[in-house]
Each structure stands twice: as C-alpha cells, then as structure tokens.
Amino acid sequence: MSEPWWHTPFRTFQTNLREIDAGLDVESVLDAIEDYGADTWLLSVGGIIANYPSELDCQSVNPALAERESGDLIGDAVAAARARGIRVLGRMDFSKIDARRAEANPQWCFVSPDGAPQLYNGYRSVCPSGEYYQSKSFDVISEVLGRYDLAGFFFNWMSFNERDYSRRYWGVCHCEPCLAGFRAFAPGVEHPRDPGSPGYRTWQRFAAGVLDDLTARMRAHVRSLAPEAGLILGDRADITFHEANNAVGRPLWHHATAEAVSAARSGDPARPVFVNAVSFVDMPYRWAGEDPHHLGQYLLQAIAHGAQPSTYIMGGPADSPFEALDVGRQITRFHRDHADVYAGLTSTARVALVRTSATEEIERRTSEFQGCYLSLVERHVPFDVVRQHRLDQVAADRYDLVVVPDGGALRPEEVSALEGVLAAGGTVALTGDSGWSEGALQLAGDVATQKAVFATEESVRSLHLPVGENEGDLTPVVGGFAVLEPGPQARSGWHAWGRALYGPPEKCYGHDRTGHPGWVSADVGPGRLVVLPWRPGLVYREVGLSRVRDAWVATVLEQTRAEGGLAVGTDLPEQLQIVPGRSSAGPVIHLLNRSGDASQRFVQPLPIAPGTVRLRLERDPTRARALVAGVDLNWTREGEEVVIHTPQIGAFDVLNLTGA
After folding, report:
1. pLDDT, tens digit, 9 for 90 and up, residues 251-264
2. Pick from 303, 306, 424, 436: which is nearest to 358 by CA?
C-alpha cells in the first residue's frame, strides 16, 4: 500500500443529514462542495438512521429513501462523487437507538445510577460497553464496506454520555456490562454515580480504556475490509478528530482550536488532525449561522497548525445560506490552491507549553495555562502545546524549553520525561504547584525547599513581587504563593514584599522586603530548572498586567541555553501571532492577525502595517513570498538571521521561503 490518502492535504465538507434529506440532489451538493474548495464529502451513512437499504435489524432504514428512484442515497452519492474525483467519508452515529430496538435489547443501553434509561426525543442512548457498540457496529461497517467504496469513517459521539443534548446530567452508566467491566478493572472500588463520587477518576480511566480499545479494534476492522480506508476518531485512530464549535453560555477561549490541534500534533506529528468547523452558533441553534470572523478563525487556526480543514452544515447547502460560509470558502480554497505548502507541514517551535492533566481546581489551572499561552503568543515565542500525560512520548531533545504551568504533582513517567529534557540540556520551568508532591520538589529536590504555602485568597492579599523594570511598581500575587528556601547552588530573584494592612487608607504602609523569592533557578546537569512558586499566567489572564507577562517570559528565556534565542525577532505588534513550520515547500510561517479577538467574539481585525521578521536560517531562500498578498518579499542576510520584510496583513498571511 502506498502512502494513505490522509497523509496528504485534504479538505472536507460535511452534510449532517436529517430523515427528510433522503431525496438529496447529490449532483447539486457536489457542485457546492467543489465550489467551496473541498475534495472530500462527509456524508451521513448509518447508525441511528441508515441512508441505504440496510438488511441489518440493528439499524432503522430511513423511510424517506422511498423518494429516491434508486432507494439508496449512499449508492447514488458515492457513484456521483467518484465521477468527479471526490472521496466520500461515512458519518456513523451509534450513540442512539429507537424505542423498539431498545425494548428488545435493553442490555445495549445506558442505565442511570437510579436504573433509568437515558431518553431524548424518543431515542435511547447506547453504552459503549454493550453489545451494540462492541459487536453490532462492526456488522454495520462490514455491510457498508461490502457495498460502497468509502474512503473512511467518522463516528459521532462515541462516548459514555453522562449528559444529553440538553446538557442534562444523567450520571455514570450502571448497565450490566459497565458494572462487570468496572469491577474487573478496579476490584473493591465502588461504582461511582457522578464526578463527586470517590471512584470517579478511576471510572474515567476505565471508560477511556474501553473507548481506546473499541477505537483500535474498529480501526483494524476497517483496515481488514478496506486497506485504503481511514478512521477519524481519537488518538488510536488514523486521524484525530476535533470539532471547533461555539456554545451559548460558554466563555470563549479564542485559541481553543489552535490549542487542540497543537496538542494532538505534538503527541504524534505523523497523525493528521481533522478540524470540523461548525458553521452555526450552537447545537440547539443549528439554523443560526456563526459569525464570519468566528468561523474563519476555526479554519485559520486549523491550517496554521497543520490540521486538515472541514466545514459542517445541517442538511444540504441550500439549507444553510450563511454569510460565514463565504469566509470558510475563501480559506478552504486557499488551502486547496497551496496544497504543496501544507504537504507535511509540521511545527518548528522549540518551546513546549504543557497542558495539565489535573482535574481538581481546574478553573485556576486553566487560567494559569491560558495566561501563559497568551504571554508566549504576544511576546512572539512560538510554542507547541503538549498534554501532560503524554510528556513521556516527546523526544527529550525536541524542545529547548518546557513550561509546565500549575500542573500539580507529576506522575513518575512525567518526572522521568522532564529529567530527560534536563539531561538533554533543555530548560524546564515550573509555575504554581507544578512538580511539587507533599511539599517536596519532584525534580532536583535540592534546588529549593518549600517552607510554607499561602493557598487562600486572604493569605496572599496585599502580597507583592517586584516584577518588571521599575522595582517600585509592584505586582500583586494572586492565586497562591509558596515560600521557598533556595538550595546552595540556586539563583533567585523577585523577593516578595510582605503583607501589610491595605485598609483603611490611613494604615496602608509597612510593607517590608522578605527573602521569599518569586523565582528560583539552578543548573541540573547540562540543563536548567526554573521554579516560579506563584502563577504569573493567572495574574496576566485575570488582572491584565503586561509587565507580568513581559517579566516572566523574559526571565525564563534568559535561563535557557538555546542558541539564538527562542523568541522571533520582529517589529510587528503583539497582536500578530507568528506560527513557524516547515513543509515539503520549505519554511512556512503563518502570520495571524489577532487584533480581532474581542470579548466573547471575533471581529474584523485591523490591518497590520508592514514590518520585519527575523529568522535563523542556515541557507538563504531562493524566493520569499507572501501567499495571501501574492507578492515576492525583500529579504536580507544579517549574520545567522534572514530578515524578511512583510506586507500589510489583513486577517492572515503565509510566508513561504523556497530553498531555505
């Protein structure tokens, strides 16, 4: 078998079909898909509703297929798509079954802790531990691949559904297969009811294992029947799936898509990531089009970080006359027209930002992570997101700097991975409670000793650090502080100003300097460990002090031994994000204009004036081109750096340096 098709750039358009769409005009849909710039159609095939004449009793055949002369939507679609050179992916949804099948096969279904089935609009939720997923779904795939030449499958909502479409919480599944499986997985642990139960985290590991095993088996099953077909699902599949969507009432994290793609790509750069960009504002509001700038950000962040773009609508193209799709079309066509630039695109960042695996105090940890994320973006320090529980899968010398923000106690394999980074000459920076277990530093314990911890809001109120160039312009400590005693070989700085009265105003004096450091660092073999016993990311995210952002990033970078520095030299403003990579076409640098990031929304970004970007390149480029502006760029060599003169930038541009 030659290289699988999913290892080359591709662009998908998903039509999530309703029962009433069985009479779909496949030729007009394919016209729209080609016009959009896509070359792959993700089409609803089976599971809840079969859009083909299935002979399996575990599926309901769509009664509206009678509208079609052939009686087979999938057969018509595959034949028409093949004639145009468009591949078809099958969307399968085994998460629900109808009442008749549920009554006949209750062992397939979810059971709440109180013994109730999970009902929604007449359908019952199915449990991945049960026979429907574990066996019947394999029969369906066998039937489909026995009839149709599909390029692969996507399984929707294959999970242990503790919540339904209305976000109502039902609890942990208590079906017989789950009860038996969990007993075998964790003998003596009581089956949990909900996240507040003592055994819930153990349950999560059990559930993840069931899904991983199911994914791996399904991948092997698909491959045995159709060696050139791929599976789009989790990290055990051929292609990792991420859905970029909005939700009413959910705080917007502007970098969510980029974060998810980067985390998946850093874990396995060879596995493609499929970003399904939702064109409507929320699942309950499927006919309200997303804002154009919002949908555009899903797709821009996806392609900039090396993912394959997909756009998702309900029904056929005529059912979603959304303005946002015009922007989606532009970006999808750009990806199509520059497929050579996106072939094999991988990150060249030398910094890793670790996303915590801890589940307790998650709001605080998320704030610290996001504040560190924004700090690095705005200081033009390219980085990859790495999942904490996958640190041991990253090569020790892949990054010159690994930042672990508020990640809590480390597992033994995570400690070993970070020790490997230090042994390779890299720098590890820990913030908050990262790397501390029962008061002891898990990495190079002689670097610092923990004497006390201020964990409550009141305990750190009026505690300050002399961060920044003007020492008297103090920085508040928010979110906790640990009192450290540096080891004999350690360096330290930002020694805290102790607490004093902050009210009434007449008593606001008496802040004395202490010996409690705001950072400690020491050489650990050929590497270096930096410990920040507070949360600078949280302070920046929640208080917005740019001097905190500038100071912590500069201090950590100064501790690294990377040649040439890790920040990109540029005179472009902080609103311009720089994402460097390399593909078969040479160095590829995405310049993303973040001036449109606004409160709970994206707006039209302001144009960014021409500037310069300095890149360390061993070879001179034979050509430097801005692909969006469509112009060749001037550049000069200054020592080990090539200085690229950038054009005016609207929403984004992409620099391709041929030959470098």
Report:
1. 999 999 999 999 99
2. 436
